[in-house]
Design brief:
Helices cover about 45% and strands about 0% of the residues. The radius of gyration is 24 Å and the shape is elongated. The protein contains three helices and no strands.
Length: about 80
């Protein structure tokens, strides 16, 4: 089973994790696992198209020329 090491975790965050784990009756490691599982296994998975559209709206949208160039292409020449 994979293992992850989290470096440079502040003392304050570590204490908060320990307290949260105690409130839920589990070890700090089990609490961290539960937090990570909840974070990545949501009922509403992120869809890349939705995220890109939201990103565009947040940054003022995009000005794209969506008219297709209908000029016939030249075949490739391999000499």
């Amino acid at each position: 089973m994979p293992a992850v090491t989290v470096r440079k975790l502040s003392d304050e965050t570590h204490r908060a994790l320990k307290l949260r784990a105690a409130r839920h009756g589990r070890s700090t490691e089990a609490e961290i696992r539960a937090i990570l599982e909840e974070a990545v296994h949501t009922d509403h998975p992120v869809k890349i198209g939705s995220e890109l559209a939201a990103f565009g709206k947040r940054h003022g949208g995009l000005d794209l020329d969506l008219n297709r160039d209908k000029t016939p292409t030249e075949p490739a020449v391999f000499e």
